[in-house]
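assembly run, all chains below
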Amino acid sequence: MSTHIAAEKGQIAESILLPGDPLRAQFIAENYLEEPVCFNKVRNMFGFTGRYKGERISVMGTGMGMPSHSIYVNELIREYGCRKLIRIGTCGSLRAEIKIRDLILGLSASTDSAVNKIRFQGMDYAPAPSYRLLRAAHDAALAAKAPVHVGKILSSDSFYTEDPDQWKLWARFGVLGVEMETAELYTLAAKYDVEALAILTVSDHLVTHEATPAEERETRFRAMAEIAFQALLAK
Ligand code: HPA
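ok done. output:
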Protein backbone atom coordinates (compact mmCIF):
# COMPACT_ATOMS: atom_id res chain seq x y z
CA MET A 1 0.00 0.00 0.00
CA SER A 2 1.01 3.63 -0.41
CA THR A 3 0.58 6.31 2.25
CA HIS A 4 -3.08 7.01 1.42
CA ILE A 5 -4.16 4.08 -0.80
CA ALA A 6 -4.59 0.52 0.48
CA ALA A 7 -4.17 -1.26 -2.88
CA GLU A 8 -1.52 -3.89 -3.50
CA LYS A 9 0.87 -3.28 -6.39
CA GLY A 10 -0.82 -4.35 -9.64
CA GLN A 11 -4.37 -3.82 -8.35
CA ILE A 12 -4.79 -0.47 -10.13
CA ALA A 13 -5.01 -0.23 -13.93
CA GLU A 14 -2.82 2.06 -16.06
CA SER A 15 -6.01 3.85 -17.19
CA ILE A 16 -8.05 5.54 -14.48
CA LEU A 17 -11.06 7.83 -14.18
CA LEU A 18 -10.92 10.36 -11.37
CA PRO A 19 -14.19 11.86 -10.13
CA GLY A 20 -13.90 14.12 -7.09
CA ASP A 21 -16.67 12.32 -5.23
CA PRO A 22 -15.87 8.73 -4.13
CA LEU A 23 -19.57 7.80 -4.38
CA ARG A 24 -19.38 8.71 -8.06
CA ALA A 25 -16.45 6.29 -8.35
CA GLN A 26 -18.62 3.60 -6.80
CA PHE A 27 -21.49 4.51 -9.17
CA ILE A 28 -19.21 4.08 -12.20
CA ALA A 29 -17.83 0.79 -10.90
CA GLU A 30 -21.33 -0.59 -10.29
CA ASN A 31 -22.83 0.65 -13.56
CA TYR A 32 -20.01 0.33 -16.10
CA LEU A 33 -17.26 -2.03 -14.94
CA GLU A 34 -17.38 -5.81 -15.26
CA GLU A 35 -16.33 -7.64 -12.10
CA PRO A 36 -15.25 -4.51 -10.21
CA VAL A 37 -12.94 -5.05 -7.26
CA CYS A 38 -12.65 -2.38 -4.57
CA PHE A 39 -8.98 -1.57 -3.90
CA ASN A 40 -9.34 1.32 -1.47
CA LYS A 41 -11.59 2.34 1.39
CA VAL A 42 -9.09 4.45 3.34
CA ARG A 43 -10.86 7.74 4.25
CA ASN A 44 -13.85 6.41 2.26
CA MET A 45 -11.98 7.45 -0.89
CA PHE A 46 -13.31 4.46 -2.80
CA GLY A 47 -11.35 3.03 -5.71
CA PHE A 48 -12.25 0.12 -8.01
CA THR A 49 -10.71 -1.81 -10.88
CA GLY A 50 -12.70 -3.78 -13.44
CA ARG A 51 -13.10 -4.20 -17.18
CA TYR A 52 -14.83 -1.94 -19.68
CA LYS A 53 -15.25 -3.41 -23.18
CA GLY A 54 -12.46 -5.83 -22.33
CA GLU A 55 -9.95 -3.18 -21.13
CA ARG A 56 -8.75 -3.00 -17.55
CA ILE A 57 -9.81 0.36 -16.13
CA SER A 58 -9.84 1.81 -12.61
CA VAL A 59 -11.90 4.58 -11.07
CA MET A 60 -11.18 6.40 -7.83
CA GLY A 61 -12.37 9.51 -5.99
CA THR A 62 -9.79 12.20 -5.26
CA GLY A 63 -11.71 14.64 -3.05
CA MET A 64 -12.09 18.37 -3.51
CA GLY A 65 -9.28 20.81 -4.21
CA MET A 66 -5.70 20.51 -5.40
CA PRO A 67 -4.09 19.36 -2.14
CA SER A 68 -6.36 16.30 -1.92
CA HIS A 69 -6.22 15.63 -5.67
CA SER A 70 -2.43 15.92 -5.64
CA ILE A 71 -1.94 13.34 -2.91
CA TYR A 72 -3.91 10.70 -4.79
CA VAL A 73 -2.52 11.51 -8.25
CA ASN A 74 1.08 11.46 -6.94
CA GLU A 75 0.58 8.03 -5.42
CA LEU A 76 -1.40 6.64 -8.38
CA ILE A 77 1.37 7.59 -10.81
CA ARG A 78 4.45 6.99 -8.65
CA GLU A 79 3.43 3.91 -6.67
CA TYR A 80 0.87 2.23 -8.91
CA GLY A 81 2.06 3.12 -12.42
CA CYS A 82 -1.07 4.92 -13.70
CA ARG A 83 -0.39 6.36 -17.17
CA LYS A 84 -3.72 7.67 -18.48
CA LEU A 85 -5.69 9.76 -16.00
CA ILE A 86 -8.98 11.48 -16.79
CA ARG A 87 -10.60 13.74 -14.26
CA ILE A 88 -14.39 13.79 -14.62
CA GLY A 89 -15.88 16.61 -12.62
CA THR A 90 -18.01 19.69 -12.56
CA CYS A 91 -17.26 23.36 -13.10
CA GLY A 92 -18.90 26.75 -12.98
CA SER A 93 -19.38 28.50 -16.35
CA LEU A 94 -17.86 31.96 -16.71
CA ARG A 95 -19.47 32.72 -20.05
CA ALA A 96 -23.06 33.35 -21.10
CA GLU A 97 -22.75 31.18 -24.22
CA ILE A 98 -21.62 28.12 -22.22
CA LYS A 99 -24.74 26.68 -20.66
CA ILE A 100 -25.55 24.54 -17.69
CA ARG A 101 -25.04 20.85 -18.70
CA ASP A 102 -22.50 21.69 -21.44
CA LEU A 103 -19.15 19.90 -21.41
CA ILE A 104 -15.79 21.65 -21.25
CA LEU A 105 -12.56 19.85 -22.14
CA GLY A 106 -9.73 21.66 -20.37
CA LEU A 107 -7.23 22.90 -22.97
CA SER A 108 -5.19 24.68 -20.28
CA ALA A 109 -5.56 25.20 -16.54
CA SER A 110 -4.66 28.56 -15.02
CA THR A 111 -4.63 28.74 -11.26
CA ASP A 112 -4.81 31.14 -8.31
CA SER A 113 -3.06 28.51 -6.19
CA ALA A 114 0.47 29.10 -4.92
CA VAL A 115 1.44 25.46 -5.57
CA ASN A 116 3.09 26.07 -8.93
CA LYS A 117 4.54 29.42 -7.85
CA ILE A 118 6.40 27.51 -5.15
CA ARG A 119 7.23 24.54 -7.38
CA PHE A 120 8.64 26.77 -10.14
CA GLN A 121 10.36 29.26 -7.82
CA GLY A 122 8.12 32.22 -8.70
CA MET A 123 8.01 31.50 -12.44
CA ASP A 124 4.86 30.52 -14.33
CA TYR A 125 4.14 27.10 -15.78
CA ALA A 126 1.28 26.49 -18.28
CA PRO A 127 -0.51 23.25 -17.28
CA ALA A 128 -1.97 21.56 -20.37
CA PRO A 129 -3.58 18.19 -21.15
CA SER A 130 -2.56 15.28 -23.34
CA TYR A 131 -3.50 16.32 -26.87
CA ARG A 132 -4.19 12.68 -27.72
CA LEU A 133 -6.73 12.24 -24.89
CA LEU A 134 -8.21 15.66 -25.64
CA ARG A 135 -8.73 14.82 -29.29
CA ALA A 136 -10.20 11.39 -28.46
CA ALA A 137 -12.63 12.89 -25.92
CA HIS A 138 -13.61 15.63 -28.36
CA ASP A 139 -14.27 13.07 -31.10
CA ALA A 140 -16.36 10.98 -28.67
CA ALA A 141 -18.35 14.03 -27.53
CA LEU A 142 -19.07 15.10 -31.12
CA ALA A 143 -20.11 11.55 -32.03
CA ALA A 144 -22.49 11.54 -29.04
CA LYS A 145 -23.82 14.95 -30.17
CA ALA A 146 -22.96 16.32 -26.73
CA PRO A 147 -22.70 20.11 -26.36
CA VAL A 148 -18.92 20.33 -25.97
CA HIS A 149 -16.44 23.21 -25.71
CA VAL A 150 -12.67 22.98 -25.72
CA GLY A 151 -10.93 25.79 -23.89
CA LYS A 152 -9.16 27.34 -20.96
CA ILE A 153 -10.23 26.60 -17.42
CA LEU A 154 -9.30 27.98 -14.01
CA SER A 155 -8.34 25.74 -11.09
CA SER A 156 -9.08 27.80 -8.01
CA ASP A 157 -8.14 27.20 -4.39
CA SER A 158 -11.31 28.98 -3.25
CA PHE A 159 -14.92 28.06 -3.86
CA TYR A 160 -15.97 31.04 -1.73
CA THR A 161 -13.77 33.89 -2.99
CA GLU A 162 -13.34 37.15 -1.02
CA ASP A 163 -14.17 39.15 -4.13
CA PRO A 164 -17.33 37.66 -5.66
CA ASP A 165 -16.49 39.30 -9.00
CA GLN A 166 -12.96 37.90 -9.26
CA TRP A 167 -14.02 35.39 -11.93
CA LYS A 168 -14.68 38.29 -14.33
CA LEU A 169 -10.95 38.91 -14.71
CA TRP A 170 -10.39 35.31 -15.78
CA ALA A 171 -13.40 35.49 -18.11
CA ARG A 172 -11.89 38.56 -19.79
CA PHE A 173 -8.79 36.49 -20.55
CA GLY A 174 -10.77 33.74 -22.25
CA VAL A 175 -11.30 31.28 -19.40
CA LEU A 176 -14.49 29.25 -19.88
CA GLY A 177 -15.01 27.54 -16.53
CA VAL A 178 -13.81 27.29 -12.93
CA GLU A 179 -13.11 24.17 -10.90
CA MET A 180 -10.56 23.21 -8.25
CA GLU A 181 -8.21 20.38 -9.35
CA THR A 182 -6.99 20.30 -12.94
CA ALA A 183 -3.89 22.56 -12.83
CA GLU A 184 -2.29 20.10 -10.42
CA LEU A 185 -3.35 17.06 -12.46
CA TYR A 186 -1.85 18.48 -15.68
CA THR A 187 1.35 19.58 -13.92
CA LEU A 188 1.92 16.17 -12.32
CA ALA A 189 1.15 14.37 -15.58
CA ALA A 190 3.82 16.46 -17.32
CA LYS A 191 6.32 15.85 -14.53
CA TYR A 192 5.94 12.08 -14.77
CA ASP A 193 5.45 11.96 -18.56
CA VAL A 194 1.96 10.42 -18.45
CA GLU A 195 -1.29 11.49 -20.11
CA ALA A 196 -4.05 13.49 -18.42
CA LEU A 197 -7.27 15.26 -19.31
CA ALA A 198 -10.11 17.01 -17.47
CA ILE A 199 -13.65 16.56 -18.75
CA LEU A 200 -16.03 18.88 -16.94
CA THR A 201 -19.80 19.28 -16.90
CA VAL A 202 -21.09 22.76 -16.18
CA SER A 203 -22.98 22.38 -12.88
CA ASP A 204 -23.48 26.05 -12.04
CA HIS A 205 -23.30 29.38 -13.78
CA LEU A 206 -21.48 32.44 -12.51
CA VAL A 207 -23.16 34.72 -15.08
CA THR A 208 -26.79 33.56 -14.81
CA HIS A 209 -26.63 31.91 -11.34
CA GLU A 210 -28.45 28.79 -12.58
CA ALA A 211 -27.54 25.33 -11.25
CA THR A 212 -28.17 21.82 -12.63
CA PRO A 213 -31.43 20.39 -11.28
CA ALA A 214 -30.66 17.52 -8.87
CA GLU A 215 -32.67 14.98 -10.87
CA GLU A 216 -30.53 15.62 -13.97
CA ARG A 217 -27.16 15.24 -12.34
CA GLU A 218 -26.98 11.48 -12.80
CA THR A 219 -27.84 11.66 -16.52
CA ARG A 220 -25.22 14.35 -17.09
CA PHE A 221 -22.65 12.41 -15.13
CA ARG A 222 -23.31 9.27 -17.17
CA ALA A 223 -22.84 11.17 -20.44
CA MET A 224 -19.50 12.53 -19.24
CA ALA A 225 -18.31 9.12 -17.97
CA GLU A 226 -19.15 7.48 -21.31
CA ILE A 227 -17.08 10.05 -23.21
CA ALA A 228 -14.20 9.54 -20.76
CA PHE A 229 -14.32 5.77 -21.30
CA GLN A 230 -14.15 6.27 -25.08
CA ALA A 231 -11.10 8.53 -24.66
CA LEU A 232 -9.35 5.93 -22.50
CA LEU A 233 -10.05 3.19 -25.05
CA ALA A 234 -8.81 5.23 -28.04
CA LYS A 235 -5.53 3.88 -29.42
N1 HPA B 1 -16.29 27.20 -8.42
C1 HPA B 1 -15.30 26.36 -8.13
N2 HPA B 1 -15.38 25.05 -8.35
C2 HPA B 1 -16.53 24.57 -8.89
C3 HPA B 1 -17.58 25.40 -9.20
C4 HPA B 1 -17.46 26.78 -8.97
O1 HPA B 1 -18.39 27.57 -9.23
N3 HPA B 1 -18.59 24.61 -9.70
C5 HPA B 1 -18.12 23.36 -9.70
N4 HPA B 1 -16.87 23.32 -9.20
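The two ends are 30 Å apart (CA to CA).

The mean pLDDT is 97.

not gonna interpret more than that til we talk
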